Amino acid sequence: MVKIIDGKELAQTTTDNLKFEIENLKKKGVIPALVVIVVGEDQASQIYVKNKHRVAESIGIKSIITKLPSSTSESDLLALISEYNENPDVHGILVQLPLPKQINEKKITESIRPEKDVDGFHPVNIGRLVMNDPLAIPCTPMGIMRMFTAYDIDVEGKNAVVVGRSNIVGKPMAALLLNANATVTVTHSHTQNLSEITKQADILVVAIGQANFIKKADVKQGAVVIDVGMNRLDSGKLAGDVDKDVSDVAGYLTPVPKGVGPMTIAMLMEQTIELTKRSVGIG
Ligand code: NDP
């Protein structure tokens, strides 16, 4: 029988546990503050930002949302980020992606100070992660590693296959698994015989953005299957990258929704607290 990994519940426990730390920081006169900048009207972005704000406020993190029009220039956005970089009362800065075409995402990502880069996307943070000396870690793969720990899933020595190689999910996921002593294979749209590779996986992480792409014939009996995908169907429903029939063969499976998504937000909160503590020399 497949075990469903309850990301929602684990996220709730994780954020509940943070309240105590936030209280302690406040007693010392430190109010953890997270700035989220959103440019334009992308609908999915608006929902993500609202969810992050709701969770932050519910546990006592000061959440500052800065909404800018889609016509915002790159230089104006850089100037705003520079202000937040210099502001000692701001501990985490996140720019919601995607950005409008006139703004270079790479430039923006690189403009956030690594010590405030709560998304962990800055090249310095990616480099430190690869060298197994992390400062800030991309929240989605970080949340997945936390799921393994919470469900006593030992990754050491296991065959781990990551489907997808984006800078925000696939690549940092592979680095974290490698740091945890898994044997890691990263696959992508040019991979040949993908199914032959995924069938070897003890741990299979799928992040490609194609609804129900991985079927039960692609999965080894008893494998741990992590579905990162969030695909909006024409019906309006949300679907993962993994087909429901995978539950017939998997040992563990994350649902969509209520799987990886809530853990991503919980890790964002945890990382805000970690960066806050670091900035004031605690922990
Ligand atoms: P990207 O579009 O940036 O990357 C997709 C990756 O999948 C690419 O590396 C691409 O390969 C690969 N790919 C695409 N099609 C195939 C295929 N047929 N076979 C093998 N590989 C394929 O996506 P993201 O990593 O940003 O996101 C992936 C999914 O995860 C999306 O559904 C997104 O919404 C979701 N997501 C969910 C989050 C959460 O919190 N739950 C957070 C972030 C993302 P190539 O490099 O060759 O093009």
Structure description:
- There is one protein chain.
- The protein is α/β, with parallel strands linked by helices and 283 residues long.
- The chain has 2 domains: 86 residues, Rossmann fold, CATH 3.40.50; 123 residues, Rossmann fold (3-Layer(aba) Sandwich).
- Helix content is 40%, strand content 16%.
- It has 9 helices and 11 strands.
- The strands form 3 sheets. It has a 6-stranded parallel sheet with strand order 1-11-8-7-5-6.
- Strand 2, helix 2 and strand 3 form a beta-alpha-beta unit.
- The radius of gyration is 19 Å and the shape is globular.
- The mean pLDDT is 97.
- The site of NADPH dihydro-nicotinamide-adenine-dinucleotide phosphate (NDP) has 25 residues, from helix 9.
- Homodimer.
Please outline the helices and strands.
Layout: E1 3-4, H1 7-27, E2 33-39, H2 43-59, E3 62-68, H3 74-86, E4 92-95, H4 105-111, H5 123-130, H6 139-150, E5 159-163, H7 170-179, E6 183-187, H8 194-198, E7 203-206, E8 224-227, E9 231-232, E10 238-239, E11 252-253, H9 260-279
Helix pairs in contact: 1-9, 2-9, 6-7, 6-9
The protein binds NADPH dihydro-nicotinamide-adenine-dinucleotide phosphate.
NADPH dihydro-nicotinamide-adenine-dinucleotide phosphate (NDP) binds at residues 140, 163-166, 168-170, 187-191, 194, 207-210, 228-231, 260-261, 264.
The appropriate CATH architecture of the largest domain is: 3-Layer(aba) Sandwich
Helix content: 25-40%
CATH class of the largest domain: Alpha Beta
Mean pLDDT: 97
Beta percentage is 15-25%
> Which ligands are bound?
NADPH dihydro-nicotinamide-adenine-dinucleotide phosphate
CATH superfamily of the largest domain: NAD(P)-binding Rossmann-like Domain
Largest sheet report: 6 strands, parallel
Instruction: Give the number of DSSP strands.
Output: 11
Distance between the termini: 41 Å
Overall domain count: 2
Global structural class: alpha/beta
SSE string, helices as H and strands as E: EHEHEHEHHHEHEHEEEEEH
**Any low-confidence stretches, pLDDT <50, length ≥5?**
none
Q: Looking across the biggest beta sheet, what order are the strands in?
A: 1-11-8-7-5-6
- Number of discrete helical segments: 9
Shape: globular
Radius of gyration in whole Å, from Cα? 19 Å
Q: Do you know the CATH topology of the largest domain?
A: Rossmann fold
